[in-house]
Amino acid sequence: MAAVYAQPAAANYFTAPAHAPPKQRGYRICDQCGTVEQPHLGRFRLCGGCMTTQYCSQDCQKAHWPSHKPICQHTASQISSAKQPGPSAMDEGLVKGLRKFVSTHCTLLSWAGFQALQLKRLPSNIRQNALLIELNYRHSSSDSLRRFSIKGTHIVPRTYVTDNDPLVGQDILRREERCRKSGGIGCAVVLIQCGEISQVMPVEVDSPSRITWDAREDWLQVLQHFIESGRTDFKPISTTPRGIVYG
Asked: Are 55 and 49 in contact (CB under 8 A)?
């Protein structure tokens, strides 16, 4: 028996949908050719250096390397520095875990940024603000994804990210220009931070007329639920003329 709600949930909050969803926003885009990931055909590969940039093929990854090299080596250098022994050395498990956490929860974090910045109603927010997600880290959990929990979320000026690291700022601008050329509104910035370790997640956003995701005020509760429970099956909801669609 199917559950019926007077007001639909923001996502597949209780159980994952049984049907295979159509392709919607939230999947990865090849950083070289712009192809959208089709998970049922195969997952894109992540750059092993920065764990942020993604490619549809090895050929695209090789072709993109000359332009990607500066930001990739910069990111890898920061990660390597954090692992160096010393009084301020970071937990290597935390560094690796955070990268895995961001990659695994890519769709959920993108959706949270979209909702927190209210981009469906106020697209201009994309140029002014960013979402900062602070995490707690628990060493004791055997499940690496459940070692993280939400400590707090904040809307911060976008310059908090772009001015603090010029190379990261340049990479965000590059993605933004590409997004706008294809009809999008720009690049939303989500910063995930755990202690002194952080990872910037740029999210290229379509124009509001092409976005079917419902605008939700309960995005933080949904984010907390999926993170705290260790669930990785998040699918945002869209209310369409054909009915409610997950994906």
From this structure: no
Report the 10 Å Cβ neighbour count for 20.
Answer: 9
Which two tokens mark 147?
């070692």
Lookup: tokens for 75: 């990111």
Contact at 8 Å (CB) between 65 and 31? no
pLDDT recorded at residue 174: 87
Do 11 and 224 form a contact (C-beta atoms < 8 A)? no
Q: Enumerate long-range contacts of 178-182, CB under 8 Å, 24 or more apart.
A: 178/34, 178/204, 179/204, 179/205, 182/34
- 220's CB contacts (< 8 A; 6+ apart) are 112, 116, 150, 153
Q: Which two tokens stand for residue 143?
A: 């499940």
Cα angle 150-152-157, degrees, rounded to a multiple of 5: 130
Quick: pLDDT tens for 165-207: 888 888 889 888 888 888 889 999 999 999 888 888 888 888 8
Helix H or strand E segment including 152: strand 148-157
Report which DSSP code applies to 124: G
Instruction: Quickly count: other Cβ atoms within 10 Å of residue 35's Cβ.
Output: 15
Whether residue 109 contacts residue 132, with contact meaning beta carbons closer than 8 Å, is answered with no
Position 6 confidence tier, pLDDT thresholds 50, 70, 90: very low
Which long-range contacts (C-beta less than 8 Å, at least 24 apart) are formed by 213-217? 213/24, 213/25, 213/111, 213/114, 213/120, 213/237, 213/238, 214/8, 214/10, 214/238, 214/239, 215/115, 215/118, 215/120, 215/121, 216/10, 216/115
